[in-house]
Amino acid sequence: MKTFFLYTLQFIILFIIQIGFLQKIYLTPYCVPFIYISVILTLPVHLKRESVLVIGFFIGWIFDILYDTGGIHAAALTAISYFRYYWLKFLEGTERYGEEYFPSIRLSSPQWFITYISIPVLLHHFLLFFIEAFDLSEILFVLLKTILSTIVSVLFLYFFNLIFYPIKRK
Amino acid sequence: MKSLIAFILNHRFGFSFILIELLCFYLIYLQHNYQSSVLFNKGNEVSGKIYSEKNRIYQYINLKQENEQLVFLNAKLLNSSIYAHNIINTLSYVKKDTILKQEYVFIPARIINATFNNRKNYATLNIGKSQGVQRDMAVISSIGIIGSVKDVSEHYATVITLLHKDFKVNCMLKDGSCGPLSWDGESKSILQMEDVPLHAKIKVGDTVYTSHLSHIFPMKLPVGKVLSYERKQKNSFYTVQVEIFTDFSSIQNIFVVKQIYKNEKDSLEKISYQIK
Fold it and tell me: How far is CA B1 from the centre of its chain?
């Protein structure tokens, strides 16, 4: 119950930041960070993988309704929810997961966490921008936009997780 | 049969992934289908409520700029009114109502949400069907044009803005040469006017207006000013870079333009142009 409350709180905070601030900041058309992906990435490792898919779909869909984009966010986030399972399995070689484990800086090293979030964020942004443009002639624009947005998103998520799950000093 | 069910149950992760993705792409397909967008009006209603709350907070931030624009508009209106003119010949100033045909009605509204950093950008208005807004109406501000109405719910309406991949509006230069204005996605203040004939007299800094060829916009509304123009290799047309007057990140007070005789015009054109 406490975990459920924590994730809902995290979602609400990210939601407010995404809708309230990130949509208002306009640097270039090449840099549009999306940070709500953090909720999916930090779900407990031993949560049923089918439930992760469903949660991913609904979170994406909420943003689709708000941005009036049909199902673009839902499609990208569902793909990430699917990819997460295999990605965690792949990374298990460097990190051992206990029963209560969830991916965070507190329970692992900053290097591991950055590696863990950057590939899914990159994939998510690429899928999102590619489905939005849906045009192979714009592939260079999409790639540049993906890379720049990913850098900003990963930096933002790193600091967000530092603040949201503070590291306990021994 | 038993083994088939067992197979599906064993691979339920992959199957549910494919099912949900299919659902997502169906939703995207619905989005592009005008007839089915009625389904989305319910969602429109909900997000509209959220945005009008958010808008109450943001409204004050841009108040100063908005006020300056309103003062500017007021001054412009006063200058063109009867008070600003010295009537020399009273006989010739009589306004005969029977020869003036009002064609457009301007409905004041406010933008309560707008995106401007996607490839397709939209805005949400605080008025809807109950205030007489319909699909494909023009949306303008006191200094420039905004876009056209896409979907309408009971109390809200969404607008396709100028900053949209598929939005095109026919514009006119000072000397009368026309061309469609569209957005290439590079900068949120610069749009491209294509197909301007080579004999057109273009001057940097000239104002660009909406043309008489536009189906939804009234004629001669200011859009922006000419920034530069070039002839792309071996093209027989100029491409003009236009800096638009509208600043989408701060604009709030706008007007929806209702065309009074639109239905009559449309049905007449349908008969003669054989549009299906």
Answer: 56
Q: Is the pTM of this model over 0.80?
A: no
Report which secondary-structure segment, H or E, holds A17. Answer: none
DSSP state of B130: G
Say how far apart CA B8 and CA B16 lie, in whole Å: 10
CA B261 to chain centre: 20
A 10 A CB-CB count for A36 gives 21
> How is residue A107 written in tokens?
């329970």
Q: How far apart are CA A85 and CA A89, in angstroms?
A: 6
Determine, for residues B28 and A71 on separate chains, whether the beta-carbon distance falls below 8 Å: yes
- DSSP-H helix ranges across B60-153: 63-80
Say whether B239 sits in a helix, a strand or coil. Answer: strand
Joined tokens for residue B251:
């604009």
Could you give the CA distance from residue A44 to residue A48 in angstroms, rounded to a whole number?
A: 9
Q: Which two tokens stand for residue A82?
A: 């699917």
Site from B24, B52, B158 to mutate, A interface, most A CB atoms within 10 angstroms: B24
The predicted pLDDT at position A119 comes to 93
Q: Is B106 helix (H, G, I), strand (E, B) or coil?
A: strand
Closest CA to A7 of A164, A153, A119: A164
Q: pLDDT tens digit string along B226-258?
A: 999 888 777 788 889 999 988 888 888 888 888
pLDDT in tens, B96-118: 455 566 677 788 888 888 888 88
CA-CA distance, A110 to A45, in Å (whole number)?
18
User: Which residues, listed in sequence order, are joined to residue B39 by a DSSP beta bridge?
Assistant: none
User: Higher pLDDT residue, B256 or A135?
Assistant: B256
Nearest alpha carbon to residue A160 among A1, A5, A16, A3: A16
- Rounded to whole angstroms, the Cα distance separating B55 from B61 reads 10
Which three-class secondary structure state does DSSP give residue B131? helix
* Yes or no, beta carbons of A53 and B20 under 8 Å apart: yes
Shortest distance, CA B13 to any CA of chain A (angstroms)? 6
Q: Per-residue DSSP letters for B175-211?
A: TS-EEEEE--SS-TTEEEEEEEETT----TT-EEEE-
